[in-house]
Amino acid sequence: MATTRTKDIKSVDVQPVQNGVSLLTEHDIYLFKEGRNFRLYDKLGAHLHVVNGVAGVYFAVWAPNARQVAVVGDFNGWRSNSHLLTARMDDSGIWEGFIPGVTRGAKYKYHLTSHHRNYQVEKTDPFALHTETPPRTASIVWDLDFQWGDQMWMQERSKVNALNAPMSTYETHLGSWKRVPNEGNRSFHYREHASQLTEYVRDMGFTHVEFLPVTEHPFYGSWGYQTTGYFAPTARYGTPQEFMHLVDRLHQGGVGVILDWVPSHFPTDEHGLVYFDGTYLFEHADPKRGFHPEWNSSIFNYGRNEVRSILTSSALFWLDKYHADGLRVDAVASILYLDYARRQGEWIPNEFGGRENIDAIQFLRDLNEAVYRDHPDTQTIAEESTSWPMVSRPNYLGGLGFGMKWNMGWMHDTLDYFSHDPIHRKYHHNQLTFSIMYAFHENFVLPFSHDEVVHGKGSLLGKMPGDDWQKFANLRCLFGYLYGHPGKKLLFMGSEFGQWREWNHDQSLDWHLLEQAPHQGVQRWMKDLNHTYRREPALYARDFDSSGFEWADLHDWEHSIISFFRKGEKPEDVVLVVCNFTPVPQANYRIGVSRSGYWREILNSDATIYGGSGQGNVGGVESAPVPCHGRYHSISLTLPPLSIVYLKAPSAPDR
Q1: Measured distance CA(21)–CA(99) in Å, rounded
Q2: Exposed (0-12), middle (13-18) or buried (19+): which is 653, by Cβ within 10 Å?
């Protein structure tokens, strides 16, 4: 630990919390102990404060089993006997005190001595707003003053974040989107992302970005999923204000911001939350509930009211202070199930003998209720990989209260289907058609996320069968199918231009590939998909309503062709999507339609500008009074190889 100090403040300078020094009220403590104080970041941690005209910092930390708590830092030579905090006399377990003369930028930790076995340890402040750049672990006294310029976005974002609005999300890891080779291959800073990422995402037509966890984490290779700082953006890329600047620029550019948030587990690094005051404070004491065997991390004790208060405060913090438009909640299945990643005998049933974590269920419901009460213009999105019912249904209906849920089943089935050689796809036709059986049971997001392009899984392009031309054609077809299928869209960075290698968090994306025509074609296809998707309400307005989808024909398994209609709120908002999943072009392919007139071809993945063979329907086709598929009219199409085409319905009334 560094010993540089700015001023040697003596222990007598630590003022007790009486006489109005404490920021905590009796009501704060009551709500905290009830598990209902969701703004703890205003009271716990380190806060610049003025007492009797003297500037300093008010410190408060929850450590109910500590015998002594001291603030150590660069202002006192990191001495543990210099600045002792005082335990409140209300049985809250909170220690607090005011230290005059400490200023913004001061580095500090808490030195705790436990009642148990005289255990002593230095801990990072759980409520720190800023930290040293890892691998250093000290907290930094900071404030969140910032002049926001996104007022227009904040006033109007309820329309952008609504369930009936288009949502195409660009999932991004800030450490590897772009790097600077001539500066030691360092990652872009928040400010560099603010200019370049905003311009890129806006040009590509994505509606939102979703950042892998920005919360502070000691191990870079965890991508942020091993969080120690639940109230601090990682210092690897800059200060809290610089991260605010990134969010602000994205908002001013018309791009929403979703943050990946991890309340499911935390790492066992000594400076973090684990064994915080010499006891299992944040986690369960029994490893059958408190230790995650798959991730070698600790599991929060959701039955402890104070822990629920702290976690929900973290969620609201990012919405309150950083203007986030939503939270993607990681690993919800691991929160819900007591036997997650455990074999028989390695877990403890609930009081009714089941495997459901009853405390966690209540936590998630309270969390979502708090978010939508205070920020109804945002969304919470669950990464939940099982068939748990009603994840994205309100609490009053018995649901968990999330706004949306990742559709992991659709993702797995779709990627498995596309991995097959086209000659065999007809034997797997049900993998495409089955998804509609459950597509409207939840408010689904269709995710091609980072998880699908790491750990030896290869890139999306690498998963595609065939020669290089067929791989690119398959990838364009995959993306076209993603945008045609009901549900919001999510794509991990690099996939939008067909990166060959799988994602490596230590390297920049392979932007040099865009010098090659096939990759340019995929990127252009993604751009046109996004902009067409946003222009056509049929493709998004009824994502979560079965009335927004109708099969044209799902039975042509022999040719591996499916076709379906997407419908918006207005009668004229109808788009026909036709998918040919084989390299065999089809001429004069007839499909029944419910509307007579000219069906305009608005997208064709086989167009030459995307790297295709240039086959298609020369702008569109006129219907004929030839019955087909139970409809009075039909159209005759040319279906290019390994392609998807979108056709906009004529404006005439249905017949």
Answers
A1: 10
A2: exposed
566 in Cβ contact with 484 (< 8 Å): yes
Among candidates 250, 257, 265, which has minimal Cα distance to 302?
A: 265
- Compute the distance between CA of residue 269 and CA of residue 274 in angstroms, rounded to an integer: 7
Nearest to 243 by CA among 219, 274, 270, 211: 211
Q: Which long-range contacts (CB under 8 A, 24 or more apart) does 394-401 make?
A: 395/365, 395/368, 395/369, 400/332, 400/361, 400/364, 400/365, 400/368, 401/364, 401/365, 401/367, 401/368, 401/369, 401/372
- The count of C-alpha atoms lying within 13 angstroms of the C-alpha of 9, restricted to the half-sphere facing its C-beta, is 24
- Which residue among 74, 248, 383, 442 is the active-site one? 383
Which distant-in-sequence residues (6+ apart) come within 8 Å of 184 by Cβ? none
DSSP state of 400: -
- Per the CB < 8 A criterion, the answer to whether 407 and 392 are in contact is no
Q: Is 383 a catalytic residue?
A: yes
According to DSSP, the β-strands at 208-211 and 256-261 are: parallel
Q: Where are the domains of the chain?
A: 11-140, 165-406, 546-648
Tokens of 464: 């595609």
Distance from CA of residue 452 to its chain's centroid?
15
- In angstroms, the CA 359 to CA 524 distance is 48
- Catalytic residue of the set 306, 330, 502, 601: 330
Structural contact between residues 262 and 269, judged by C-beta atoms closer than 8 angstroms: no
pLDDT > 70: percent of the chain: 96
Q: Where are the beta strands (DSSP E) in 18-123?
A: 45-51, 54-62, 66-73, 86-87, 94-100, 107-114, 120-123
Q: What is the pLDDT of residue 438?
A: 96
Per the omega criterion (within 30 degrees of 0), is the bond before 135 cis?
yes
> What is d(CA 221, CA 211) in angstroms, rounded to the nearest whole number?
15
Q: Would you state the CATH architecture of domain 11-140?
A: Sandwich (2.60)
Average pLDDT score over the chain: 95
Residues 6+ apart with CB under 8 A from 326: 161, 208, 256, 257, 258, 259, 378, 379, 380, 381, 403
Confidence of residue 15 (pLDDT cuts 50, 70, 90): low
Res. 547 pLDDT band, cuts 50 70 90: very high
Structure token pair of residue 632 = 């009075």
∠ CA 535-537-543, rounded to 5° = 130
Q: Is 192 a catalytic residue?
A: no
Residues in the chain: 655
The token pair at 19 is 């006489």
Question: Do 11-140 and 165-406 fold alike per CATH?
Answer: no
Which CATH architecture is the domain 546-648 placed in? Sandwich (2.60)
Distance of CA 143 to the CA centre of its chain: 25
Architecture of the domain delimited by 165-406: Alpha-Beta Barrel (3.20)
Tell which wins on pLDDT, 19 or 504.
504
pLDDT band for position 116 (50/70/90)?
confident
Q: What is the pLDDT of residues 370-385, one digit of tens each?
A: 999 999 999 999 999 9
With contact defined as beta carbons under 8 Å apart, do 553 and 538 qualify?
Answer: no
Q: In what order do the strands lie in the sheet with 94-100?
A: 45-51, 54-62, 94-100, 86-87
Distance CA 525, CA 605 (A): 7
User: In a 3-state reduction of DSSP, which class is residue 69?
Assistant: strand
219: its two tokens: 């191990």
